[in-house]
Amino acid sequence: MLTLLFDGVAYGMLLFILAVGLCVTMGLMNFINLAHGAFAMLGGYVTVALMQRHGVPFLVCLPLAFLASAAVGVVLERTLYRPMYKKPHLDQVLFSIGLAFMAVASADYLMGSQQQIMQLPDWLRGRTELLADTPFVLGMGHYRLFIIAVCAALTVALQYVLSATRFGSRLRASVDDPRAASGLGINVNVVFAATFAVGSGLAGLGGALGAEVLGLDPTFPLKFMVYFLIVVAVGGTTSITGPLLAALLLGIADVAGKYYIPKLGAFIVYALMIAILIWRPQGLFVRQGGKS
Length: 292
Prior knowledge:
mainly alpha
């Protein structure tokens, strides 16, 4: 039982890092980017390619995956996404879904349709068991423990940046009233570009971390799009706490459901989502004065 809980928490933390960029763009920038998973896929492929073809160490690949996805995010934000900010949400959905399908086709052409295999370093392999001689044995995979530690550190850092730094204040001001923010000397375009880049970079980092756990193939952006949307819908888009809790609930429910009732694993996740949204239609946490 404790092992399932541990694996569910690790899975949930990974989903949070993958989806938090979408939470930021939807909640703070009011832009629906359903191509978000493509940036995660890019980070995963960058990591696999650097490790397999160039022998780059895994820990070096992680920041490179973040930077590569962030760089692509900046370019696309300035060229393709920015004209869509003031468009209706339906236009944004259709536009970003089109980009997602283009990313799938590009990955299939460049990398092939087979699932990629990532070889982890020796120190991230294996498993440690606590309370081994009791009914409450806790088996902790070293890589899942590493995922929890990295994602927890990123969560604390992101929460601090958004709530306690000048950049976070400028971002909130730019979203609430772009004209007033510009009048105060805030470069709204630069703030939005930086926010989009960080969100894309976090997706790429999540893709790099999740390539071994989730699997990596060209259908990745479409396969996990629903999970990203569940995290955003259940957790809300006006805070970091809500999506984090939603991702943990989703991870635990998914792992436990697939273990105890394999044929109803996905059903349990969707039933939980529906129940929470009936109870809290705006998500688990809504920032006072924020957009609903």
